[in-house]
Amino acid sequence: MLHLIVKYMWWIVPVLLLSACATPQPTLRGTGDLGVVIERATGQVQVIETSGRKSLAQVSGLGDLSHASVVFSRDGRYAYVFGRDGGLTKVDLLTATIAGRILQAGNSIGGAVSQDGRLVVAQNYEPGGIKAFDADTLELVADVPADYGTEGKRSKVVGLADLPGNRFIYSLFDANEIRVTDLSDPKNPKTERYPAGKQPYDALVTPDGRYYIAGLFGEDGLSMLDLWQSAQGVRTILPGYGRGEQALPVYKMPHLRGWAVAAGRAYLPAIGRHEVLVVELGSWKEVARIAVKSQPVFVMARPDGREVWVNFAFPDNGWMQVIDTFTNRLVDTFQPGRAILHMEFTPKGEAVWISARDDNKVAIYDTRTRQRLAELPASSPSGIFFTSRAFRTGF
């Protein structure tokens, strides 16, 4: 028998090789320089590559993306897109296709991925609460309503962030609370509640996952929870930072999730004011306030922490300013386009991508020279999200 196998082996091997060669193989590539740009007007995303500064593909059919947010799988291959209509879409960045899509709520505002990458969690306005899904199949594995009071009401949930231990922290706008839900056993979620300030509207968690800071719409100040000493409860920081002055009309709520923690300090947008507040980490005392052109929306640190970039609400939403964190002084003011809605730094911060909604373009700037490097056409672009977020707590 053995001699027969040896006799015919000479043609079996070439046939197998030819068969393998006949099957087209996808181009091998990594995902560390990929990302997505939200095109809100058309309900689609562009898959982009930061190394070549180019668009690779468009993926359509993602529903209402008017306030869309994105998180990534831990391997950087999949983008989970949260639409305002409650849609949760899993986009395969390598094939530029939809790998899964569900309608999980009536009004959603974003999400997060668990520390182990197995869960995708959505934060919802309607019905208020959080929901956890299997990251592979998008199957619902936990539903945690944001109940409060004695009348069965449910609060809008904002400021969701992942924490070590497959826990998630979030704020309840209507209930004035911060909650931490442990989803290490999704079938038996456990939630801790902490009274907070009035109407928390957004929040951030520091890079080490220790401090959670919620901005307050209903009062001057912020609520801070030290998660290493959570038994101490929520503490108010920067109380009365408006010092009784009349706040300006708020044209757009500032966002804290893009957080700016740099040089041992936190840089925070002051709601209803033309100021960026500078707070010392640890003592949480205000050490400076920087006058800026208008009401700040995103206050984001360059990855090396040396600069903080700021965009603004209407009517000054075509401007941006740059703060040197060593001197706490403005070092540049410029207009990248009309209606600047978002920015995203490349993983090591040599460039920043900026969405100019009313110019239907994304502008790419060198962060050292602040010269424009390239532009990409996009239909009413809003959020820009790179896969490097997959490896950062709170993103």
Notes on the protein architecture:
The protein is mainly beta. It is 5% helix and 48% strand. It has one helix and 34 strands. It has one helix spanning 2-22, and strands spanning 34-39, 44-49, 54-59, 69-72, 78-82, 87-92, 97-103, 107-113, 119-126, 129-134, 140-145, 147-148, 153-154, 157-163, 167-172, 177-182, 190-195, 200-205, 211-216, 222-226, 234-237, 260-262, 265-269, 275-280, 286-291, 296-301, 307-312, 320-324, 329-334, 340-345, 351-356, 361-366, 372-377, 381-386. The strands form nine sheets. The chain has a four-stranded antiparallel beta sheet, with no helix packed on it. The longest helix is centred in the first third of the chain and has 21 residues, at 2-22. The protein starts with a helix and ends in a 9-residue tail after the last strand. Residues 4-20 have low confidence and may be disordered.
Specify the overall morphology: globular
The neighbouring-strand order within the major sheet is 3-2-1-34
Q: Ranges with pLDDT <50 over ≥5 residues?
A: 4-20
Radius of gyration from the CA trace? 23 Å
The average pLDDT value, as a whole number, equals 90
Decide which structural class fits the backbone.
mainly beta
- Give the % helix: under 10%
User: How many individual β-strands?
Assistant: 34
Terminus-to-terminus distance: 62 Å
Q: Report the β-strand fraction as a percent range.
A: over 45%
Q: What count of helical segments does DSSP give?
A: 1
Oligomer: single chain
Q: What does the largest sheet look like?
A: 4 strands, antiparallel
